[in-house]
Amino acid sequence: MIENNIQNPVQDIMHYESDIWAVADLLLAAGIKQSDFPAYMMPFFALVMVEGRMINTVKRVENEYDITAEGDAEAFKTLYDAEECGYNNYIVMQGKTLRSICMNDNTFEQDFAEYLKAFDDVLKQLLGIEREKTDQKFLNMDGIVAELRKKGILFQVASAWAQIDLAPYDNSAITTLEEHIKRRWADISASTAGEQYTPEDIIELIARIVALKVNKPKDKLLHGYDPTCGGANLLFGVSDRMQKDGYKYIKTYGSELNDSLYALSSIESRFRPMSTIKYGNTLTMVPFADMEEGFDFIVANPPYGTKWKGYEKEVKADKLGQFPAGLPSISDGQLLFMQHILWQLADDGIAVEVHNGSTLFSGDAGSGESNIRKYIFDHDWVEAIIQMPQQEFFNTPIYTYLWIMNKNKPVERRGKVALIDGSSLWQPLKKSKGDKRREMGDEHLCKIVEALARFEPSDICKIYDREHFYYNKQSLTLTEVSDAGHYVEETVCEDSKPFVIKQPVALTVGDTRYDDL
Q1: pLDDT tens per residue, range 245-260
Q2: How large is the angle between the packed helices 154-162 and 108-117, nearest 10 degrees?
Q3: DSSP string of 466-515?
Q4: What is the DSSP letter of 393?
Q5: What phi and psi values does residue 124 have, to the nearest 5 degrees?
Q6: How far is residue 129's CA from residue 141's CA, in Å, rounded to a whole number?
Q7: Neighbours of 178 (CB within 10 A)
Q8: φ, ψ for residue 50 (rounded to 5)?
Q9: Which of 28, 43, 82, 157 has its CA 20 to 30 A from that of 220?
Q10: 382 HSE (CA, 13 A, CB side)
């Protein structure tokens, strides 16, 4: 029987955050660059996370069925396997842990190798154990172990991680710790241009908006999706908060292309009921295309300013019809994800997407971006756009916006769009976290959600007809009469932005095109 080494199981799990970052001192002393810390830390964090949850599952089986591996090994293993959360013979049947392996430095190398090999095939693949050269690296445990051994610090690093016991904590608590750790990784090493980690206060806001707008009772099954889930902190964070709010059954789906982030989210999903994470390029593989009725809610923080040239051919082919409005500039795929999300959203579904300003303002009239925006407004899918405070995200100081997309807007809101200004609703962090210097407190979140719920003009909310977001693009020509009596014409503006003529002139209105903002 596995014993619990923690005397007080209700203690705050966050005390482990400093212990985890103390491991970084060993890496630094070995000459490992700070920007490489995540690659060295992710596999071990996944290891202790998996071990803690396996121990939890062992204890649950023991308590529910009054059975132990020592008492009846075959029956116990059958009951444990039914939980479908992963397997390691060392942990489940022998009661051994990373901590017990690290107690003897003389046998550590052999015991640690056997411990890693004892994971089931799926977990070995995700952790990067016994990987073939042609396989995806995912968390690349074998490669990291080899590097740490070469630097002579494998035993010290493993021993440090072995002191972190997550067994006393439930999924939600472990996810909270994981969010904080991944945030630090994102702050020091954004491996892909435009990757943004979603802060907890924004996750809380998105969860409240989804709970407000979702179109099903709390006792009905909900299907939630994040097409750019990363480590799934946004997807699982929203799901956890909604369940605390009384939504009993939420099935979560995610997709991710980054190897290590996919592995973390996929491992996490194995310890959550009704959760599926798939690997690959969401826009080309479309992993959940078979969800014909669509998702009840979709949340996403797609990458900003990321080029899609590498899969241009597949996107342009658009075999499934995901992009009916056209394609944006190849330099930024945000509006591709927006169309994908609307394509996957149920007819009565709600989507909340985090974007930077380019989704609103990029592209001249008649451009791909402009046509996409017009298509979305034409279909009346935008219920609100909410501006967030600056310095809200960890590795960027820019303004961000929440697009609230609703395919089943209430009758009284149809043809209307709310602009909600949350830019001043923040409080300073006691301690800055990279570029994140501000956070939204409960009173700020409540004010935004109330403004969305009321949908009335206020100090932070303006209501506009959707036509307000359309505009004329006009070619304007100044016409003057010369001394000789001839007309002289000069085109002075072909821009789509507003301007003022400050002197009386004769105007010739050229080609007129109606478009969105």
Answers
A1: 999 999 999 999 999 9
A2: 60
A3: GGGGEEEEEEEEEEEE-TTS-EEEEEEE--SS-----S--EEEEEEEEEE
A4: B
A5: -60, -40
A6: 6
A7: 22
A8: -65, -45
A9: 82
A10: 30
